[in-house]
Amino acid sequence: MKEYSSLERVILALNHKEPDKIPFDLGASAVTGININALKNLKKYLGICTPSIIQDEINQIAYCDTSIKNLFKTDVDNVSPGDPLHTGLIKKSHREGNFYRLTDEFGIGWQMPLENGLYYDLYYHPLANAETIQDVENYPWPDPTDENRYITMKEDVKEVIEVKKKACFLERMSSGMWENAIWMTGYEKFFTDMYLNKKFIHALMEKILELKIKYWGKALDEAGDYPIIVSCADDLGTQNSLLVSLELYKEMIWPYHQRLFSFIKKKKSGDKAYIFFHNDGAIMDTIPLLIEAGIDILNPFQVNCKGMSTKIFKKEFGKDLTIWGGSCDTQYVLPRGTPQEVRDETKRRIDDLAPGGGFIFAPIHNIQGDVPPENIVAWWETLQEYGFY
Questions:
Q1: Using one digit for the tens of pLDDT, what is the confidence trace for 242-282?
Q2: CATH number at residue 210
Q3: How far apart are CA 275 and CA 297, in angstroms?
Q4: Which structural domain range is residue 18 located in?
Q5: What is the sign of the dihedral through the CA atoms of 99, 104, 77 and 75?
Q6: Residue 261 in contact with residue 176, Cβ under 8 Å?
């Protein structure tokens, strides 16, 4: 049997064909990585002495360096925008009382406890008191076309595709449109305004869509004619249900997803833009709408949430969508199970999702700081044993 390059392997899987083996991703995206503490423990367990560096400060996600990528034989590499030259509202991490605090470029405040903190949580919403369309227009929004974001993007994409011969995951400049909007106002205000102040919500979503389109317009120009996995996101679910009714999502939020995905597909001619959509929780009911809107890849497929059956998904939607994740329950089994329980759970997900392609083996969201290294190794070894076609 022919052995494919990583790029060929991933593209075949995304086109619902079986390559030589299931493609593997660890750390190529902001939502398939590993916590800095978990990576340090894993490296110690494996006898790797390279330093561990934080890539995403808010989520405390580590940079997966060459030593890890080579050892684990990853098939995907990340290309991310650079930091903006004009920092605007950004405030770097600093100590305030019992917390580390920082402000991102949207003016959203984040904090992490000094002791035993694993990642930063929201604490400040800059549009908490906004009410009007003018409030949205007057806000000092970041510049998505800041040249510093793109300074090495073209060369980075070319290196991933032509030199490393891996699939290229092109990262977004910010979180998903809906979650970004929610973080700007706070959850209670946003959900209330979805009923009581719809003009304000539409103005806010319209503004964030505008920023997204400007970013992706420039980023996809820089990416050239290569096949690209395009990073999009919005968490639509909780553990047991959707965040809002499916009807309200379709009325107030889905049109913005549809417009963004349509822009990306038109911008990237042919079939060379694979839209990766990160969507946590019990979100099975949203899948038909997301397919209609134009996504190609669903991530992370949180198997322990209500109604999230890998077997049912594969039967009903496996010809339309690729699952990027779904490989092992990372909420309970990976952090708390035995290595054998991890192996059993992982094999079950491979059996459900691998046939016919359409499966990228990756963590179900980021591997958290309390996951034992023995379980990470057991998870990966199961792929090596059962991941061949």
A1: 999 999 999 999 999 999 999 999 998 767 999 999 999 99
A2: 3.20.20.210
A3: 6
A4: 6-86+127-386
A5: positive
A6: no
